[in-house]
């Protein structure tokens, strides 16, 4: 079972690359950063449910989304944070939590904000932290 994390730098103009990723890896979940999705945008990926957190910026920037394969039972977790983060619970043999977080490179993020986010995730959650350029596993 594959999980993919991708800083797409604009969801709308990367549909062919996204289709290639889906066809190549058939991921259970895709964590997308810098989606540039706005609140009023309709987002669809065939055979996937989309959970997203849009940027409050007036220009196209930031935003995160998780695309979960429709054949996997899933639900969005409510996160009380100002960070660009989204989390879902998925049932794959057991119940797991995936969190996608984008930290813009020039934005100051305090450790307390990250601690607050992590405290809202069930123990054993997997967080895709794009700013670190590598996955982070919370245990």
From TrEMBL:
It comes from the Eukaryota. InterPro entries: Endo/exonu/phosph_ase_sf, Endo/exonuclease/phosphatase. GO terms for molecular function: catalytic activity. Pfam families: Exo_endo_phos. SUPFAM superfamilies: DNase I-like. Signal peptide: none annotated. Residues 4-93 form the Endonuclease/exonuclease/phosphatase domain. This is Endonuclease/exonuclease/phosphatase domain-containing protein. It comes from Araneus ventricosus (Orbweaver spider).
């Amino acid at each position: 079972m594959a999980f993919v994390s991708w800083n797409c730098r604009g969801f709308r103009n990367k549909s062919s690359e996204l289709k290639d990723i889906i066809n190549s890896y058939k991921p259970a979940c895709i964590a997308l950063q810098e989606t540039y999705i706005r609140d009023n945008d309709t987002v669809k990926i065939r055979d996937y449910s989309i959970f997203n957190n849009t940027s409050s910026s007036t220009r196209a920037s930031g935003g995160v989304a998780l695309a979960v394969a429709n054949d996997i039972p899933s639900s969005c977790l409510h996160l009380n944070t100002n960070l660009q983060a989204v989390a879902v619970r998925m049932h794959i043999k057991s119940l797991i939590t995936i969190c996608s977080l984008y930290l813009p490179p020039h934005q100051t993020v305090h450790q307390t904000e990250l601690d607050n986010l992590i405290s809202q995730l069930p123990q054993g959650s997997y967080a895709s932290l794009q700013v670190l350029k590598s996955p982070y596993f919370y245990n």
